[in-house]
Q: What sequence folds into this?
């Protein structure tokens, strides 16, 4: 189940990035070349290749987004865990509690999508702006402004969502695996002592 979820996450990120690349390629190629290539893009073979390429791109974008946001992630982690060893111990403890581990996996799934779409939003905004400049459209200035504002808001929104999910995940992990939390669990009653023979 976890492998399927990760496949979907990577594909969602990859499709977004591939869409941005497609818009960028259309903007660079221009209207005439794009019109000539359009029939090729609609074939089943092209669709299958695009899906496979989107998955591969999703892996690259996920790694690139993780590396880009690594300094912010480390700062957030140190607020809850002073050392990497303390964080590793907490992750190990969490794995022993299936219900909490499942919740953490769901949070990480949302986190991966948000961080990937930070980069996707930037690419889509730049590609859309370039396409609007290259193609003949009405109200170009208004569309450029709208696309840029929407793209910036999307990038900021995905970053803030990633930031919140990451900070909350570290904080919950620290609370759930703290020694005090473990000692607060109800203890099992002691078994009555067996009667001794006279």
A:
């Amino acid at each position: 189940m976890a492998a399927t979820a990760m496949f979907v996450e990577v594909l969602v990120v990859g499709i977004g990035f591939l869409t941005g690349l497609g818009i960028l390629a259309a903007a660079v190629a221009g209207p005439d070349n794009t019109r000539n290539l359009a029939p090729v893009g609609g074939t089943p073979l092209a669709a299958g290749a695009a899906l496979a390429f989107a998955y591969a791109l999703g892996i690259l974008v996920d790694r690139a987004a993780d590396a880009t946001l690594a300094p912010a992630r480390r700062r957030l982690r140190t607020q809850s865990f002073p050392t990497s060893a303390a964080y590793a111990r907490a992750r190990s403890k969490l794995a022993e509690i299936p219900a909490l581990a499942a919740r953490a996996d769901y949070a990480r799934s949302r986190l991966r999508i948000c961080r990937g779409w930070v980069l996707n939003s930037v690419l889509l905004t730049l590609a859309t702006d370039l396409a609007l400049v290259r193609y003949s459209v009405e109200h170009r200035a208004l569309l450029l402004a709208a696309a840029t504002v929407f793209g910036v808001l999307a990038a900021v929104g995905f970053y803030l969502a990633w930031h919140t999910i990451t900070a909350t995940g570290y904080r919950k992990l620290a609370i759930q695996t703290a020694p005090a939390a473990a000692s607060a669990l109800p203890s099992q009653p002691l078994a009555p002592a067996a009667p001794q023979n006279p």
Remarks:
- Residues 182-198 have pLDDT under 50 and may be disordered.
